[in-house]
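Need a sequence for this fold. Nothing fancy.
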């Protein structure tokens, strides 16, 4: 019937043996993914981190301990595996994807085919048991609060593990689909049509239909272009599938119960990370909003200094009860002041929630903020590095600027305390932005750092004219959640606030401008550049402003010159192509220098 598998009749003892085999492989799948894989992820994270926080004093010297050699091997392997499988075929994916894919296929083959012989039904049931055993870790990979709480152990968060969540989801669906297909084939070939109306078959087909809907709505087209529909459908169906699977067959209920427990624990964890906040909505430009409010829980007392400090670069999920479409939107925290409890978000106006926020300009809005999320809380400390490179695009500066400001403050505090740990660190900050109007926003944030002897090398690349604002129509064509795609010539909107006037900035109007800052390109006037320079003159950080697109390969290459034996931290926040360009250049220097990369983006 189904060569090489056959329909066979077995005695009760033989059936019991097959049932025991199903239980064994199901528990093996659960243990392998939930315990072994989790332990390996945590161990790899600690070993990789050891390259920067431990080991030899020089990044280029050979480690002297076994643990150090393992750390070095893992570090170099990570860089090698992240390279494309074929350099000229980047669409083919990375070496890591193919290596993991081959290993995963071999593991699935073992889990589903081992000791099945030619037993058709045993193979069919093994597929379902294997799929069910993967459900708990699949739900864990979507539990953003649980992953955030454990980030200090794994150095991974919901954002970094989201690809694995999608990968595992497709695996579970494929196994369940083949399981259902084999049973349907059996019913049809044996003319057992009445079996389609049995309880287990009805719940099985219903569950398969739910999983099909989840997979279809999770395709990139729906995630990017219909994100609200994708999110609501995904959340609803991921809950609905659990009771359906529960009533389908009782042998897999242990996995369903564990998955449901993880889901509930995640909801409880998220409730502890959620705080209420009243914010004043202010419009700074046609496409940018400033949300500013006071969070009482953020205030720190002298005996609890820095207890509630939010790590720079963290993001929150904002929800306004009167705006149902606001749920599920992550926004990077632009700044937070522990002294007065003020938090500030910079929000780009798009469709949906942000459009509703725009209608609430100059009003106070009650909202909840869930977070902080992100790898910042478990990142490697500044003190372990000798140089820092920041590369950011568009509104991605909300992340990198906060990190830069914290770095400057830490350097100044260290100097005051007599520490020279970061005093000689080299710092370069590169920002690619669409207009001079946008480029003025960091002024007020840099002023918050206070007077500083730290002088980072700041370059701002302005690529478009201020008068090319296409307004709301062009904004609706953006595809990223929070970042500008700098590779598209149509990205010419005003994204950042410009009507903030600081006394220090106003007092610096007569400050001389730097001739080298004007390159005169893309129709940007010298007056616009001069006005931008006047704004920055009030800060202790005077940028070099260029009217051209940033050559990231050249910038990264120049920065890495003379970095042999150094530890280098690279922060990237922009479209996916930006991080890829920077990494390609860093690949040539990862052996002589230790390079740690934080690539932040809110992709779909």
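Here you go.
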């Amino acid at each position: 019937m189904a060569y090489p598998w056959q329909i066979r009749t077995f005695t009760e003892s033989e059936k019991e043996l097959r049932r025991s085999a199903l239980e064994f492989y199901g528990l093996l799948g659960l243990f392998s993914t939930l315990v072994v894989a989790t332990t390996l992820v945590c161990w790899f994270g600690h070993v990789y981190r050891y390259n920067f926080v431990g080991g030899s004093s020089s990044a280029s010297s050979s480690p002297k301990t076994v643990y150090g050699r393992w750390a070095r091997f893992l570090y170099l392997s990570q860089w090698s595996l992240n390279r494309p499988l074929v350099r000229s075929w980047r669409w083919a994916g990375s070496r890591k994807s193919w290596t993991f894919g081959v290993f995963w296929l071999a593991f699935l083959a073992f889990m589903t085919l081992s000791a099945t012989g030619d037993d058709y039904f045993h193979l069919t049931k093994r597929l379902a048991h294997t799929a069910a055993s993967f459900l708990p870790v699949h739900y864990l990979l979507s539990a953003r609060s649980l992953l955030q709480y454990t980030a200090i152990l794994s150095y991974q968060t919901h954002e970094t593990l989201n690809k694995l969540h999608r990968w595992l989801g497709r695996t579970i669906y494929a196994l369940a689909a083949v399981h259902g297909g084999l049973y349907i084939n059996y019913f049809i070939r044996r003319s057992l049509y009445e079996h389609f109306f049995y309880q287990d078959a009805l719940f099985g087909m219903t569950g398969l239909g739910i999983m099909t809907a989840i997979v279809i709505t999770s395709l990139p087209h729906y995630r990017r272009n219909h994100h609200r529909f994708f999110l609501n459908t995904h959340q609803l169906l991921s809950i609905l599938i659990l009771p359906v699977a529960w009533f389908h067959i009782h042998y897999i209920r242990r996995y369903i119960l564990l998955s449901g427990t993880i889901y509930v624990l995640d909801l409880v964890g998220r409730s502890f990370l959620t705080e209420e906040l009243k914010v004043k909505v202010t419009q700074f430009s046609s496409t940018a909003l400033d949300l500013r409010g006071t969070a009482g829980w953020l205030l720190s007392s002298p005996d609890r200094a820095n207890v509630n400090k939010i790590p720079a670069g963290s993001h929150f999920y904002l929800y306004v009860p009167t705006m149902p479409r606001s749920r599920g939107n992550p926004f990077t925290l632009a700044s937070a002041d522990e002294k007065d409890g003020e938090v500030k978000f910079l929000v780009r106006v798009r469709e949906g929630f942000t459009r509703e926020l725009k209608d609430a300009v100059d009003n106070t809005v009650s909202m909840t903020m869930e977070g902080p999320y992100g790898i910042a809380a478990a990142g490697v400390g500044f003190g372990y590095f000798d140089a820092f490179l920041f590369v950011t695009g568009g509104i991605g500066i909300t992340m990198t600027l906060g990190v830069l400001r914290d770095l400057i403050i830490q350097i100044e505090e260290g100097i005051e305390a007599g520490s020279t740990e970061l005093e000689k660190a080299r710092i370069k900050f590169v920002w690619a932005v669409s207009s001079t109007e946008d480029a003025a926003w960091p002024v007020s944030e840099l002023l918050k750092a206070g007077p500083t002897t730290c002088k980072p090398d700041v370059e701002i690349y302005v690529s478009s004219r201020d008068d090319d604002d296409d307004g709301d129509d062009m904004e609706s064509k953006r595809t990223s959640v929070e970042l500008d795609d700098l590779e598209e010539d149509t990205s010419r909107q005003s994204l950042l606030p410009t009507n903030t006037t600081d006394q220090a900035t106003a007092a610096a109007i007569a400050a001389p401008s730097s001739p080298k800052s004007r390159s005169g390109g893309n129709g940007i006037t010298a007056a616009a550049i001069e006005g931008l320079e006047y704004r920055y003159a009030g800060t202790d950080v005077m940028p070099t402003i260029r009217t051209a697109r940033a050559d990231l390969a050249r910038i990264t290459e120049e920065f890495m010159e003379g970095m042999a034996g150094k530890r280098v931290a690279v922060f990237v926040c922009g479209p996916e192509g930006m991080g890829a360009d920077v990494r390609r250049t860093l690949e040539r220097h990862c052996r002589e220098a230790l390079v740690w990369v934080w690539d932040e983006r809110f992709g779909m």
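For context: The longest helix spans residues 12-53.
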